[in-house]
Amino acid sequence: MTLDIQKQIDHLKATIEDYNYQYYVLDNPSVPDAEYDRLMRELKSLENAHPELITADSPTQKVSGKLDNSFQPIEHLTPMLSLDNVFNIEDFAAYQQRLHNRLKDDAVLAFTCEPKLDGLAISIVYRNGLLEFAATRGDGKVGEDVTHNIRTIASIPLKLRGDYPELLDVRGEVFMPKSAFEKINQDAIEQGVKTFANPRNAAAGSLRQLDPSITAKRNLAVYFYSIGTAEGQALADTHYQRLMQLKSWGLPVCPEVKVVEEAQGCLTYYDDILNRRDQLPYEIDGVVYKVNTIATQQVLGFVAKAPRWAIAHKFPAQEELTRLLAVDFQVGRTGAITPVARLEPVFVGGVTVSNATLHNMDEIERLGVKVGDTVIIRRAGDVIPQIISVVLERRPDNAADVNIPEHCPVCASEVEREPDQAIYRCTGGLVCDAQKKQAIKHYASRKAMDIEGLGDKLIELLCDKKLLGNVTDIYALSKTSIINLERMAEKSADNLLSAIEKSKQTTLAKFIYALGIREVGEVTALNLANHFLEIERLVEASQEQLESIKDIGEVVAHHIVAFFANEENRIIIEKLLEAGVHWPTIENPDEDQQPLLGQTWVITGTLAQMKRAEAQQKLQQLGAKVSGSVSSKTFALLAGESAGSKLNKATELGIKIYTEEEFVTMISSIN
Ligand SMILES: NC(=O)c1ccc[n+]([C@@H]2O[C@H](COP(=O)([O-])OP(=O)(O)OC[C@H]3O[C@@H](n4cnc5c(N)ncnc54)[C@H](O)[C@@H]3O)[C@@H](O)[C@H]2O)c1
Ligand SMILES: [Zn+2]
Tell me, what's the ipTM? Predict the structure, then answer.
């Protein structure tokens, strides 16, 4: 029996030591805090039941943290301790009771409440008001010298102000504000390097750098929360007033610090901070209650590695372990195929989570995640739950790779990857149910078929009522079918039907645009219309033919070919023509319509009568290229109000310059 317990204890100790190493030395934990805390509680309760098995080196008995010999050791003037913690109200009530029992009185206890900042502890020694050295907590007795790095943190004074003690050892938490954390991880993703698991690890990793110039760039911050040693200056006799003293010496103190009375006051504070957790600019993992009167603190004293007069009340975990059961693929409104993780349900961030986003296939590759893996999932605030890492040591033998499906799970069309992008898309276009609504909205929009009255809301409704399946169904709508819809009076039904009828008369360019081929905007559609003159010729066009057209590159040409290669799309086009969609024959194609062919224009300054984008579109429609910079190849410059360097350069190079007025006259003389 005891042998078994001994084995369990040894196993727990070894596992916890391993996690400590990864967390404190490598700043790269492999399991979430919740899992670590569970093991620690298990070990504690085994040791409580078998006190004879407690050894001095047990992680329950000593301050965890290791020393990395890349840093000089620094012995602390007074030890840096840890905090005991509770995870629920019952345990907190029991803690309160123990305090009163130990103090043997029922006098009202005041507590200073503080957020439990999720960073790493630092001790900074000021001598005669000047920053002398700074050290991490290390094993509690000896820390690592990080003085050079600490000096780069903007909010840490190098010199104290006011009536400071001659010698001051002040303790605080170095942390990385959420905004800085998001930015650093965004940069890491862009550079394809490893991201930090959470702001705590980012802060620790940034402070424990051999090169202070790296620390300097990391936007670390600090709040101070206690005094280790002070000589030559009387200290206040409550914890709260001491914090105010720190502030008066120029040392930042968290603005959320507050004095309350008894358990009720503590719990009200807890609820308030928990409610505001997501709005706080820094990450916290709970709150800390500290007996306010220093004399009472001294009566209470310390246990092995933590004060009795303080306790951390931890918040529900935002990170948890669970298993990835499967990866499903969803098709978005634009055909983008996104992987969605199906998880073994787990309670995290206050709710039970069974799905998580995986963004795209690159993200899966970055995480290196396989089906069957144990993963760390994070749910903070209202943010969609995310998988942040894989616990590789728990990977089962039958873990399976995640593969993108070859066919759309909704319409079975082929799936393809966009060149140079992480996104896979369904090529189904108009036939894909998932893309249907979006496609119909685009088709009916003003710059496309311009069907007045057929707006987004009505399209949603018609799709939901199964009156619209794809764009061809627009022409099958009848008065009897729509009159019974909500908010559809007889008059609006008539108006809609006549608008549909009227819109059948269009141009080839608008029709091509209306099809919603990826990356075929109005200008490209116009170029295509002018080049091919007939829709049938465009449908048959080859990649090479398309690429030979001005402004059409490989990618766009590819999208066009893929769109028309889809048999369903061709059938839809036939049906639209049968329904009566028509356009005038293009009489004067290419050259005649494009008198500015071969010219390169530059637009600069502010235009009064139109937007720059409109001027650009006009020029492009007439065949000109529009470039962003003036060179000897520039044909003309359109210069609006307060034109600057481009105007100067164009003048220098003797390039033709149009005022807005001249430009408008020129354009209207062509049209
Ligand atoms: N995931 C892992 O593998 C892993 C490994 C080791 C430790 N951990 C985490 O670290 C915890 C244990 O670390 P610990 O021993 O440093 O204890 P702790 O972090 O629970 O509490 C002590 C620390 O709290 C910090 N703190 C923040 N705000 C404070 C405030 N207002 N007043 C006083 N202190 C404040 C200080 O840095 C102090 O050293 C575990 O509970 C776990 O969450 C995780
Ligand atoms: Zn599809």
Answer: 0.97
